[in-house]
Amino acid sequence: LRDFSIGRGTRLLRRGGISSPADLPGLVAWFDAGAANSLYEDAGLGTPANDDADVVGSWRDLSGADNHAAQGTAANKPTRQNAEVNGLPVVRFDGSNDQMATPSLDLSDGFGIFIVHKTTGDGMFLSWSGGNHQVRIGEGGGNVLSAFDGTTTRTSGALAIARTEWALVEYIYNGVNLTFYQKGGQAGAAA
After folding, report:
1. Distance (Å, rounded) from C-alpha 108 to C-alpha 15?
2. b/e for 53-75, b at 16 or more Cβ within 10 A?
3. What distance in Å separates the CA atoms of residue 115 and residue 149, rounded to the nearest whole number?
4. Which of 16, 30, 36, 54 is in Cβ range 3.0-4.6 Å of 63 for a Cys bridge?
């Protein structure tokens, strides 16, 4: 996982790009593995994780909202991997039990999620309380994007770029409809 951000509202990207999290109104979380002072070995943002294969116990939220991601259990911590994407670091989750949690975020009224990812299996990138709310890439090892609405109802679409290649995926939920985008085009939608 290279970058991961969550914001309120619909389509948050603008022409001309962005230079900092402050450029995105309504942003509630921004995680960037390559940002200085963003990865820490402990769950309390204390000991920097700067070296290749360091465990990541906390990931600083760069949005300014202090929704830092943390993992206190050593066996469930992902690792920092240096020089993985264009010479930049990533956070590698093992696909088994590695996970990180943020403070409670109310995503029920809508959100936009942008993920730079590469996965070899079923990757759940976001889940939240109140039922089976999940955002996944490669569900069941397939080449699909999918999301669950709090029940067992799944919305899915085919990936334009193989899940085993680095790619940007965007999920937009406006409180009623969920739409996925990849490679500049819509990959799936559901009400």
Report:
1. 27
2. ebbbbbbbbbbebebbbbbeeee
3. 19
4. 30
